[in-house]
Amino acid sequence: MLCLAATLHGLHARRPSILLRDIKLENFCITDEGALLCVDFGTAKLCTDSSVRKSYAPTEKYMAPEVDNRYSRPADVFSLGEIFAEIFCWMCKLNSATSLDVVMKNSTFKNKIARTAALKLLERRQPSDGRFRVLFNLIIKMLSENPHDRPLAGQVHDILRTLRSDYKCCNAELPDKESDDGLSSSPVENMGSDFECCFTDDSM
User: Fold this and answer.
1) What is the per-residue pLDDT across 141-173, written as a single tens digit (0 to 9) for each?
2) Neighbour count for residue 174 (Cβ, 10 Å)
3) DSSP letters along 102-143, please?
4) What is the CATH number of domain 2-161?
5) Distances (CA, A) of 138 to 5, 8, 70
6) CA 7 to chain centre
7) Which of 99, 97, 188 is nearest to 135 (CA)?
8) Distance CA 180, CA 12 (A)
9) What mean pLDDT is predicted for residues 104-109?
10) Cα-Cα-Cα-Cα dihedral of 61, 126, 119, 157, to 10°?
């Protein structure tokens, strides 16, 4: 998760920014050396008009609610939040391919009713000791209906850095911060500071 957030931040922090527009698990690969690669830039676009593009990614499953009208950096964050929700399923010992599809009735996170059902499932099935609470709250923010309420990719990375300190490859502070152009989200608040993470290397 940390590397995914760092990768997205690196693209968004460029000038002009790069919008991936088709974020899904299939577009991220891991090399034999353990490096994360982002592949398939066929739908990526440069942000040259206030970070807004009136077009959208072809994979409906990962679309943000607003992409029928515009596509901006918060839409990429929404799609990344869906990937995090799928990983969160695995962390809670759920099969995302069946559990989420069933509770969402084969709809997508773009659908508010289906999205709410999925988040309720994840909330019920997370460990009772609260060790995943901060991550769950972060996913909720990333999947906010209003794009202005979503964190920036760099803010997602900063939150994830607080969850484990021994993960080295992408744990450094990000050198460049994304500017808030009015379409990006407000800072993440109330995520909590007492989270003790016990993720495995496979989950982050």
Assistant:
1) 999 999 999 999 999 999 998 886 555 556 667
2) 18
3) HHTTT--TTSHHHHHHHHHHHHHHS-TT-TTHHHHHHHHHHT
4) 1.10.510.10
5) 12, 16, 23
6) 11
7) 188
8) 11
9) 85
10) -70
Q: What does the block give as tokens for 91?
A: 């962390």
The confidence score (pLDDT) of residue 50 equals 47
| Backbone phi, psi, residue 38, to 5° | -95, 125
Nearest to 109 by CA among 167, 150, 55: 150
Mean pLDDT of 32-37: 66
Phi, psi of 163 (to 5 degrees): -85, -20
Residues in the chain: 204
Picking from 131, 136, 174, 160, the residue whose alpha carbon sits closest to that of residue 2 is: 160
* DSSP designation for 154: H
Domain ranges of the chain: 2-161
CA–CA separation, 34 vs 96, rounded Å?
Answer: 24
| DSSP three-state, residue 147 | helix
Question: Tokens 């084969």 appear where?
Answer: 106
Q: Has this prediction a pTM greater than 0.85?
A: no
The predicted-structure confidence for 182-191, as pLDDT tens digits, reads as follows 343 333 333 3
CB atoms within 10 A of CB 151: 25
End-to-end CA distance of the chain: 5
